[in-house]
Automatic annotation (TrEMBL):
Biased composition (Basic residues): 9-19
Region (Disordered): 1-22
Phylogenetic classification of the source organism: Bacteria, Bacillati, Actinomycetota, Actinomycetes, Frankiales
Identification of the protein by name: Uncharacterized protein
């Protein structure tokens, strides 16, 4: 019996060290060895931060090293539960988008009940979630002018240039006396 108590104490130490270095997976393994897998904890156990004791109570202190493990599992379950609940409304959501986009009703003054901006937003939402958002091309000009500007701005603590800029004039073309550069 003493051996089991010492083993549990050692495991708690392993769990504390794993949590301290951010190894949540190892801490979860230790929690499963000491108690039961965190995935099997009910909502009350997750909110209290520890599993029930053998008699079904929560009379012991919360081990601080379990906190990251419990948080990760609670977040995972909350996201899963949310997705499951929202999935039940998916058909209604699609019908609502379709009704908004195709609604041609007008009020007593002839004004559309569904403004064109709402129809456009619904259409964009559907398009972007099925086809995907349009990509934007970005071009960056990294010319020598930018390098010269940066090099000129960098100054050492004694006031000298960190990287002196060397500007070299091009040798004129001896065959092009006008210096037009078209030769």
């Amino acid at each position: 019996m003493e051996d089991d108590g010492q083993n549990r104490k050692n495991l708690r130490g392993v769990g504390r060290r794993a949590a301290a270095r951010g190894d949540v997976d190892r801490a979860a393994e230790v929690a499963a060895e000491l108690y039961k897998p965190v995935e099997q904890w009910d909502w009350e156990e997750l909110t209290r931060g520890r599993p029930r004791t053998r008699d079904g109570g929560f009379d012991a202190m919360v081990p601080t090293w379990l906190t990251p493990v419990v948080q990760r599992e609670a977040e995972r379950r909350l996201i899963t539960l949310g997705k499951q609940k929202l999935a039940g409304y998916l058909g209604q959501a699609i019908e609502t988008f379709a009704k908004l986009m195709t609604n041609e009703e007008t009020d007593a003054h002839g004004k559309p009940i569904v403004p064109p901006s709402v129809k456009l937003d619904a259409a964009k939402f559907i398009f972007e979630n099925i086809v995907g958002k349009a990509t934007t091309r970005v071009e960056v000009d990294a010319t020598e002018g930018a390098f010269g500007l940066l090099a000129g701005a960098m100054v050492m603590s004694d006031g000298t240039d960190a990287h002196p800029v060397v500007i070299q004039e091009a040798d004129p073309d001896p065959e092009d006396p006008a210096g037009s550069g078209s030769g």
